[in-house]
Amino acid sequence: MNALSLSLLNDFQRGFPLVSRPFQVLAAACGTTEAEVLRTLSDSIAHGTVSRVGAVFAPGRVGVSTLAALQVPRHRLEQVAAAVSARPQVNHNYAREHAFNLWFVAAGAEQAALDRLLGAIAADTQCALLDLPLVEEYRIDLGFDLTGRQAKVNPPTRTNLSSSPLSEAERRLLCALQDGLELVAQPFQALARAAALTEHTVVRTIERWVAQGTIRRFGVIVRHHELGYRANAMAVWDVPDALVDELGQRAACVPGVTLAYRRRRQRPSWPYNLFCMVHGKQRSEALATVQEVTGLARLGGYANAVLFSCRRFKQCGVRYLPRESVAAHG
Description:
The protein is of the alpha+beta class.
């Protein structure tokens, strides 16, 4: 990765300029041209190191989502994974090392729609399903340091998990924004056309969503695996409910933890309520981070498991609303 790519992918994962020509601002910061920034980001998307440039929405603010898992017979894994990935409401879909071996994130505009989706997946696959909604977040999607120089992490994050109704204009903007910005000189103008709004309204609305915490961060969304961080592990613990918030906040402050949150248990199949995601270039590196979390967060002695991902079937941005919500107003 050259210096320009590293700067764009590492330094602009958040704080993306909300101005008419944002890539011009990035170019000035990197000492290059707007055209070169656009070319570099386009190449990064083509090579898979960047998913998109756009918004990461805070969970529970504009819709609902959950982490779910299926217990799939090994000989059916490819078939079931393809069927799950084909659903547009599913944005992440991974095989992991566990009896519940297919893990996916699904979203919807409201809880009833999400429940229908999960019911349909369980019925279609005839597999046991876990539904593990978020209860409390401690660290969620603040970006990913690519330099290895990060000495400390940002403070744990908190989000109000109750969503607010969106206006019709906001729904159109959300739909248009779900796939990220178009890589053109004036991307907010292109976004405005897609949402049947003015550029001014689009920028002001995104600014408001960022200020309110509806958008957790706005910037370059990287793909860890393509950048060499191939050891992706989900570490989970069964922590007493009275202690989980305190210990979860400790875990969130450990360097190397990219996500930390509490999710609802589903006994007897799934007793765990504290989740941490760690990424390493090698399996041993990820396991060392899990060991460090266990010590620093005082999690020793609690039942736990480490689920490494062994295959990625799908990874894209969250889709709360269908494309038709925009097409109907185009």
